[in-house]
Amino acid sequence: MEKKGTILMQRYELGQMLGQGTFAKVYHARNLVSGQSVAIKVIDKEKVLKVGMIDHIKREISVMRLVKHPNVVQLYEVMASKTKIYFAMEYVRGGELFNKVAKGKLKEDVARKYFQQLVGAIDFCHSRGVYHRDLKPENLLLDENGNLKVTDFGLSALLDS
């Protein structure tokens, strides 16, 4: 229901939709004060409550606050209205690793770089007691400098859970 150009919480101007899942849509947006590009994940509260997944959302927020690493998509802030939950996150311009792999085999040095960045990010998460549990090329993004960014901690687990 969010439309392009909508002003969200008097902070962000929503742009085009970047992706969509069962419970959420992700939009490109612009911070009205700084002009910074962000990704806004819009979660439908009613759908999440109906299937009893509110704890998953809370866990995702906790996890994203724990894992501040150069190869993990950063969470900037969480906002909510009566019907929606909004995550303002780092906008990663380069798209999914999946799309790059689908075009053909990666060069060895590029594949090695991605693998090292992935291992570094996952090692960091594990050292904080965070386990992603949904690593796949669709959840690995590439920034404009060709660096890998792990995203979508919706199925993650904490060591104590």
Descriptive account of the structure:
The chain has a single domain, classed as Transferase(Phosphotransferase), domain 1, CATH 1.10.510.10. It has four helices and ten strands. It has helices at residues 45-50, 54-66, 97-102, 108-127; strands at 7-8, 12-20, 24-31, 37-44, 75-80, 84-90, 130-131, 140-142, 148-150, 157-158. The chain starts with 6 loop residues before the first strand and ends with a strand.
Unreliable stretches covering 5 or more consecutive residues? none
Major β-sheet annotation: 6 strands, antiparallel
Q: Can you tell me the CATH class?
A: Mainly Alpha
Average pLDDT works out at 92
The secondary structure category is alpha+beta
Which topology does CATH recognise? Answer: Transferase(Phosphotransferase), domain 1
Write the layout of secondary structure elements.
Elements: E1 7-8, E2 12-20, E3 24-31, E4 37-44, H1 45-50, H2 54-66, E5 75-80, E6 84-90, H3 97-102, H4 108-127, E7 130-131, E8 140-142, E9 148-150, E10 157-158
Antiparallel strand pairs: 1-2, 2-3, 3-4, 4-6, 5-6, 7-10, 8-9
